[in-house]
Amino acid sequence: MKILYAKNSFAGPISGADEIAVTYAIELKAAGHETSMLLVQPPHESESLVARLKAADVPFHTLASPKFSSSLAVGKRILIRAMRTFSPARNLILSKSRKVVFSLLQQYHDACCEYLRKVKPDLIHVLTPDPGAVMLVRAAHHTGIPVIYQEVGIPFHPPGFEEVYERFVSVMPMCAEVAALSPALVEKLTSVVPHLDSAKVLPLISLDHNHSAPTKDSNRPVTFGFSARLEHLKGPMRLLEAFRMAQQSHPEMELRIAGDGSQRQEFIDKSRADGLENKCHLLGIYKTLQERAEFMDSYDVFVLPSLTEGTPNVIIEAMAHGKPTIATAVGGVPDLITEDVGILVPMDDQQAMAGAMVRLASDAELRTRMGIAARKRYEQLFTPQAVLPVLVDFYQAVIAKHRAASNGKASVATHEWATKMTQAT
């Protein structure tokens, strides 16, 4: 098979959709198929994902020039200042700017069609409903190449992105198939997208790099890890408040943070005000797989207090490293965190999160038992060995249907969610 993965752009460090697309491309290439990556906008010259693609010999192509992306970046900074200056008109400014960006990206339709005719992939796999994705789906449809769209989050969410999704929904009928990352997300997708009768479950692949059974220094305090953008929707300030509450009964526990974002300084100021600056370690962004693995091995329990999620890569990465997880029950998270591998808490309930932190900090045997179960669940659901057969079967079925040359019903790959995949169609 010849599969082309397509996105508008790489969104920067700790982007789940970027990680999914790159990992699919690399692992499918390693399995003997021909894969490549197409971006509308060129990535930053230091983008680590590009280095991973090159190392795996996966061809990489962009449509726009670096000058175009630089101009959009300048425009974005001006937009942010305008919204801060004229806050009452924030929504109007944002809406008009999105329409401008959408129109600019549609101008690459002809260049995209030309590239697709040259490369001639058997199938195009598009992720995330951004303005560039609209153009990519239209170009694939125009050139007669089957295209699948994969939703990695929750449709029409978070608040403020409804306009973006409404525009993308208009091209969904052009897709040969639509997929989501877990059974719960398929249900959400089909319930809110007009005229979408069915969708498939297509799990993500999470790579296991140099995993070994976790060991703990008995003299080291119990440490909680958080890896995500330091933005409102990821809940870093809620995590800090829960940590402060948990400190009242377990003052020795510590918190390790990997990430950056608009709430970084607010987090620092609040931790100082609470007298926790020596207990909260902000480590910045990891940029390589090795740095990620080292971070995952540096804590005892992973915590993710998000207000909205799809199927978070970072939870699965924690599971791969044998770590129990405390997370809010949002999006596809309940598909990941069963009671044997972690603790789910209600969204925006810092008291419940603090209680879960105290419970796991107090019970080393429970942490160990959950960590072992988490590793087992990772192996069952998210390794290349578990997911690649599903991915290959899915692609082959779409290609065969498009060519109208199917020779009977294809075999169904074995996967724990396979029955739910069938029921969702």
Computed CA radius of gyration, to the nearest angstrom: 22 Å
User: H/E element string?
Assistant: EHEHEHHHEHEHEHEEHEHEHEHEHEHHHH
Architecture of the largest domain, according to CATH? Answer: 3-Layer(aba) Sandwich
Task: Enumerate the spans where pLDDT stays under 50 for 5 or more consecutive residues.
Answer: 421-425
Number of helices: 17
Mean pLDDT: 85
Strand order of the largest sheet: 3-2-1-4-5-6-7
C-alpha end-to-end distance: 23 Å
The portion of residues forming beta strands comes to 5-15%
Assign a percent range to the helix content: 40-55%
CATH T-level topology of the largest domain: Rossmann fold
Shape: globular
CATH class of the largest domain: Alpha Beta
The CATH homologous superfamily of the largest domain is named: Glycogen Phosphorylase B
Q: What is the makeup of the main sheet?
A: 7 strands, parallel
Structure class: alpha/beta
Number of domains: 2
Number of strands: 13
